[in-house]
Amino acid sequence: MFESFVPKIEKNTKFIGLIYGINTLGAFAGAIFPPFVFGTMGLPGTLKWTAFINIFIGVVFFSLYISKQKSLQELTNQERVKEEIVWSRQSIYLVVFSFMTGFIALAFEILLIRLIGILQGMSAYSFPIIISSYLFSMSLGSMFWSFIRDRIRRPSSSFLPFLLQSLVAVFIPLSLLLFQIPLKSKYSSFFNFERMWNSVSPLLENGDFLFLLRTLFLFSVPLWILIFPVVFVSSGIFPTLIKNLSEFHVSLGTSTGILYLANSAGCVAGSLLTGFFAIPLLGWHPTLIVFSGLSLLMGAVGILLWPFSKGDVSVPSYRFRFTPSSLLILAFLVASPVILFSISDHKIKY
Fold first, then answer.
1. CA–CA dist 85, 61 (Å, integer)
2. Is residue 155 classed as helix, strand or coil in its secondary structure?
3. For 35, how many CA atoms within 13 A lie in the half-sphere containing its CB?
4. Which of 148, 324, 139, 117 is closest to 235 using CA atoms?
5. Are the C-beta atoms of 190 and 218 separated by less than 8 Å?
6. CB–CB of 179/46 below 8 Å?
7. Neighbours of 289 (CB within 10 A)
8. Distance between CA atoms of 182 and 174, rounded to whole angstroms?
9. pLDDT digits (tens, 9 = 90+) for 37-71
């Protein structure tokens, strides 16, 4: 998809993040829209409309391709570049890091779903609310951090995905701590999906959409406190990581394919290991601490391999560079989650 939308000479991260963010925004709409439609169209009708939209999109883009084929072919011939992947310690770590990013992201998602399921109970409406909040946060974070990455001068910009992964370890306990504040107040009665849908349904039927949005916002605040900070930060990792690998003489399509494969494999491993082994063996809160520590470790290694380095980023790095800047950053990143986890309520009384 990236290879189709962006010229090979135009490898700016902002455009990568925009395409990835819009795609994720569509996933958000696909998650939140069906619950509102099933009541009026039914499942078969909704599936038929989904199929029709797929066909429509395919026909439109194929028609555009046919009409522009000659000019696109000339553009492709002009931009054809020889690919030569430089497999240094850094580029190999990028692939491993992509795997672990997916591993940690899905582990956190499983932990969230398990927690909210215990607090709320699961229903046909619970999962769409959770996953749509997750996807909307991903969309905004992807576009924002890709824009920031292009504003940072090289070579300092290369360490951004590793800094973001380390910040995930800070924002996990911070979000958990902030999440407990509304749950211990009178506001806790709003954090109830069944009550929310009972309130929303009459408003939807009467067409009171402004009151509907206000009601959804009130009921969703605790959920957004828990989800948004972590996902907003972590969603900037993947598009900025693509930019890092593409700087090793790899085309955008190839670098995306390599990292997406590794990331997807990590997602599978993270979801299975967390749901079937980590939570049953360790418990929910210790599992959260373990994966926060793992996130910090992966980010710290990257920061030490890319600490404001000078020269060509494709030059292999065979040792860690302990600079004052990197050590100061790591000290803050290690101390913050330790303090936040120690003062948060492990039992989450609700």
1. 31
2. coil
3. 18
4. 139
5. yes
6. no
7. 18
8. 14
9. 666 777 788 888 889 999 999 999 888 878 877 66
DSSP 8-state code for residue 68: T
**Helix 284-305 / helix 324-343 crossing angle, nearest 10 deg:** 170
Task: Please tell me whether residue 52 adopts helix, strand or coil conformation.
Answer: helix
Is the CB of residue 173 less than 8 Å from the CB of residue 333? no
Token pair for 27: 């996933």
**The two structure tokens encoding residue 328:** 């100061």
Q: Are 132 and 25 in contact (CB under 8 A)?
A: no
Helix pair 89-120, 126-151: axis angle to 10 deg = 150
Helices (H), the chain: 2-5, 13-67, 69-79, 89-120, 126-151, 160-183, 193-206, 209-234, 237-246, 252-273, 279-282, 284-305, 324-343
**Cβ atoms of 116 and 131 closer than 8 Å:** no
Residue among 116, 140, 110 at smallest CA distance from 129? 116
> Longest Cα pair distance anywhere in the chain, in angstroms?
65
Q: How many residues can be counted in the chain?
A: 350
Tokens of 336: 């913050």
At 66, list the tokens: 């046919």
**What pLDDT band is residue 101 in, cutting at 50, 70 and 90?**
very high
CA 327 to chain centre: 27
296 neighbors 334 (Cβ within 8 angstroms): yes
User: What predicted TM-score, i.e. pTM, was given to this entire model?
Assistant: 0.81
